[in-house]
Amino acid sequence: MTLEEKVGQLSMAAGGYAVTGPLLGGDVTADIRAGRVGSLLNLWGAEVISAVQKMAIEETRLGIPLLVGFDVLHGHRTIFPIPLAEAAAFDPALWAATARASAAEAAQDGISLVFAPMLDVARDPRWGRIAEGAGEDPLVAAEFGKAKVFGFQGANLEEPGAVAATVKHFCAYGAALAGRDYASVDISERTLHEAYLPPFAATVAAGCAAVMPAFMDLAGIPMTAHRPLLRGWLRGKQRFDGVIISDYNALAELMRHGVAADLVDAAALALVAGVDIDMMSGAYHKGLPRAIAEGRVSMEEIDASVRRVLTLKQRLGLFDAACRQRKAETPSPAPGPLAREAARRAIVLLTNKGALPLPPSLEKISVIGPLADARREMDGPWAAAGDREKPVAILEGLAAALPDVEIRFAAGVGIEGEDDSGIIGALELCRDADVIVLCVGEAAAMSGEAASRADLGLPGRQMELAKAALDLGKPVVALLSSGRPLTVPWLFERAAAVLATWFLGVEAGNAIADVLTGRFNPVGRLPVTWPRAVGQIPIFLGPRPTGRPFAPNDSYTSKYLDISVRPQFYFGHGLSYSCFAISDLRAKKAKLPFRRDGRIHRRDRQ
């Protein structure tokens, strides 16, 4: 291989979209034919990818097929609940099943590499990407990651329906300063090893094919150039021999971090740190030839990275059949029952004052709020190749579940914006209702990447609508559609019931109706601590003890002057419709054999 061909294997370019579907630009096509591109992202569809693979195999000197990567975070064409919601099920078998269904759809669309699962432990709900992971606990994140890797990859990457999993974002990305995406992280070495590294250790041991470093810097070193963690901990201590893929344009951003003067610097720093594939920055293409000429990287280091990339392509069976016998026609969606089961198991019943399940005697229900008939929001962020018009809206699900009940609807307000002119009309629909179903929360775009929020209350004029509905004195069942905990203590205090309904995907409306009507007993439990106020953040399960724990009658203890130190809901909180009681407890007598063996030596201090 020439140096240009080697660098090509380490370079990832992007496809794009037109109204008619996925496409490739002329520049990318020329680079593929010249052997300057070894991987593609953001391209899907069996027909277009088959054509691109044919080009790479038949029109290049070496005939090496392409890796094709895509974000399949919580489904491909069939969208399942966002990962934070799915984590609420605490069910590894379910996590693996949804990943397996997603992998099958992605593989049928020509994709061989997915940028998932996300393993970032997140203890700050201001950070928008909390929606993409399994919450605050490293053990849960580790189990979630192992299940997803198994679901995506199966027992063998060559088997039909398997794709290579990329665990991300290595590491501690969820501890971004002030919850601002891309911001720096500065945590203790102990916290790094206790909270943020264990999920990656677990998934590397489970055989994940690829790892993606995070954008941010950790204690002054950008993760894309963090040799101690990438080469030292990941490749050395964990013996990871798979591919390390940068995040989008991350190599070029080393210049903005202030550690690289130019793309030559950036390329040398990343390659020496252990990054195999440069996603979209062009740093390897533009900088590696000069870096090797100046002796800043060695040909052995380049060869090692190329070997890892080619090995992954071989493991995927791409050399034997680049298209892997994928059919050109649109694949059938994953079974509806799995999407519905995943969605209803994700719902968390936060409070219930006897309003749920809805009684069969209901005659009139008023459904209000901007999320009630918002099918395009139900998928949440990172909906991949999903059809935004396919999800079942909450209103639609309730109408199907309660055909004999009069259901009236008014949005009242928008998700965002200051227009409150619809509130009066919405309240008029509620005055003679037996129960009000209040559907409030976030837009899908308010969670996910680059979607940090400083105020975790209801956006727009939703609070005014909600409080006006509560003032009517009717039972109000509130549904919170969001990608994070929302700080609405007044709602928890006054509503007859509140459920975290997250972003549940294609079967959202049906799943919510199943829970509200009692056809499904809610089983979801919070994978994150739910704060009362933003001022409590970060707040999570198991902080290290203080020498002055809170005591109500002692002023000089760890507390706030204006709110409780306790969260709104603890990690693991979740109610159900079942009642549990323990009675007539009896303990049996037990005898334990005891024998003193050995001597005790005592030495008094003088």
Automatic annotation (TrEMBL):
Q: Which domain of life is it from?
A: Bacteria
Q: Which Gene Ontology terms cover its molecular function?
A: beta-glucosidase activity
Q: Which reaction does it catalyse?
A: Hydrolysis of terminal, non-reducing beta-D-glucosyl residues with release of beta-D-glucose
Keyword Cell membrane (UniProt) = no
GO BP field: glucan catabolic process
- Give the UniProt keywords, A-Z: Glycosidase, Hydrolase, Signal
Domain named Glycoside hydrolase family 3 C-terminal: which ranges?
A: 347-577
**Ranges for domain Glycoside hydrolase family 3 N-terminal:** 2-312
Q: Give the EC number(s) under which this enzyme is classified.
A: 3.2.1.21
Q: Name the InterPro entries on file.
A: Cellulose_Degrad_GH3 (IPR051915), GH (IPR017853), Glyco_hydro_3_C (IPR002772), Glyco_hydro_3_C_sf (IPR036881), Glyco_hydro_3_N (IPR001764), Glyco_hydro_3_N_sf (IPR036962)
The family annotation for this protein states: Belongs to the glycosyl hydrolase 3 family.
What is the name listed in the Swiss-Prot or TrEMBL entry for this protein? beta-glucosidase
Originating organism: Methylocella tundrae
